[in-house]
Amino acid sequence: MAKNVVLERSSLAALDQKLAMAKKYSHEGVIAGAKAAVVASIAAAIPTLASVRMLPWARANLNPTAQALIISTAAGAAYFIVADKTVLATARKNSFKHLSNIEA
């Protein structure tokens, strides 16, 4: 009976540790995604706003809503792509580290 209690406590501790690491990795993904979104916003805003000022077609057809949509789409895509890649990379790194600990 006491053996089961110790096993349950250790499994709960391991579960808590895994949950804490998952939160840490997801936070790293959020930070990396936010940085990428800022860069993508600037990278999309400069040519979009410049083309609206310089090109007659863009001036006639791209209203402020369309400009905002172009910029926010680039930012959103960059955020989700980078955040996903960061979370997966850190999880993969942790997975391989855990595997090497088991083999040793």
Automatic annotation (TrEMBL):
Keywords of this entry: Membrane, Transmembrane, Transmembrane helix
UniProt cross-references to Pfam families, sorted A to Z: ENOD93
Superkingdom of the organism of origin: Eukaryota
Keyword Lipoprotein belongs to the record: no
Bilayer-spanning residue ranges: 30-52, 64-83
Protein name: Early nodulin-93-like
Species the sequence originates in: Rubroshorea leprosula
Taxonomic path: Eukaryota, Viridiplantae, Streptophyta, Embryophyta, Tracheophyta
